[in-house]
Batch of 3 targets.
Target 1
Amino acid sequence: MKFRIAIAADHAGFRIKEAVKKHLTDAGYEAQDFGTHSVEMMDYPDAAHPAVRAILKGECDRGILICGTGLGMQLVANHYAGIRATLCWNTEMAELARRHNDANVLTMPGRFIDADSAIAITDMWLKAPFDGGRHARRVGKIERDI
């Protein structure tokens, strides 16, 4: 079974989404595209909500969300219990997001990184393991009071 990744963007992240989606598909991942499908202006929650819901339903294993700053997508995703979305704009942050936070959603700033950087960030985020240990205790505290 292929690793399934929900991918979504608003108009500001569309071009990077398309490049990352192609890269994922070429690398053997199943990328489920939740839009947008053009650079025409749209509201980022309209793409983020369906992508996140697909993760929570088990239809996708992780998610990648891209908007102008990455912040809007991160806010929408973290609205849901069970989602740990993190904004990354370099590979070091992507690695630590996985190792320390077990991030299951990656958000990226489409206006501040290029497609090659987004692909490198994505690759690091996908390959880095969760370290567990003291980090598992901390991640557990995120959900505890919900």
Target 2
Amino acid sequence: MSTCTICGGIGLVEHLTEKGIWVSRPCECQQMERYHKRLASAKIPERYRHCSLDSYETGFRGANPSLAQALMTARKYAEAYPIDTGGNGLLFVGTAGLGKTHLAVGVLQRLVQERGVHGLFCDYRELLKNIQNSYNSTVNTTELELLKPVFAAEVLVLDDLGAQKPNEWVWDTVALILNTRYNNRQSTIITTNYPDLPAGGGVQTEAQRAAREQTLGDRIGDRMRSRLAEMCVRIEMSGEDFRQSVKRARFG
């Protein structure tokens, strides 16, 4: 590894202020090292590590205007954090393939780099399965150990909220996570494929209930859906799955 030509490897550089006083400040190499450590601790999956606000595409043919609006809101949030966001987060709502996770990770990466945030990425379904697995007597990790970093993260990305089949335990666990972060005024950035509507969606007959689309209220309970309205700015995204066109997998 080569030695930094600016600081000589000590991590500090000196500069003369306007008042003629020499002061020390962290070298850019040290700042970059700290950034990479914070980024690694955020546990962003390899698939999403390239995601940034600058790389999010909204100009492709047939793009729904809501995508550009979502990008603009995400940028404004990153610029306003933390003074003007007041502990609030973001809730990206829309069907699969619109780039909700891309934007959520893009905001997190921007905050880690420019605001020095200590953040964490969590896949909702994976987190719940790991917590369930911790009840196994042969597993050394406890529920508290799994939830501690979720509670401690300055900014948490909770991806794919509602993906786990709901039951009382799921609802209680979601309530614990969201209420803890709400009470501590910690920012939570959430993505979900389910429409932000109450349980039942106003449908009355059993046949209609069976045929209708599941809502966020169905998946996490109306009480927690109401809590999200208090703690997150909702960003509605619409359009076709652009992974089927813009992001289609290919060789070469």
Target 3
Amino acid sequence: MKKVKKRSDCPVSCSLDIWGDRWSLLIVRDLMLAKECTYGDFLKSAEGIATNILASRLLALEENKIIEKLEHPDSKAKVLYRLTRKGIDLLPVMIEINLWAEKYFTIPDDRKAMLKEVKKDKVGFIKTMAKELERQDELKVK
């Protein structure tokens, strides 16, 4: 996949060029909540992503260094995907999207519980969750 030409120098535009499609942030969401996923795990998400779209988005996210692939410890036929530091840095964006959605949509109870914790101490919640995601990286590298 070749590098996408920037449409402008606008930070919003440049960011959307990487993760602004219909599926990429859902992949990031799954990695943030599940910490690691296989291709099959992504296919099981409630949104029902098609296999060709999933393959394309995973490749684009990997090329943009949002995610990376790891060997699966139990199967040579599978790979694990995880967030890179660049991907983990999307955590505050994901929190804000969830807070916005809570105002305008009915959201699942588990997400409401998470947002209740976020509202107590947003900065602390983000730091703790980011450290947890980073710790997963350290464990997998060893």
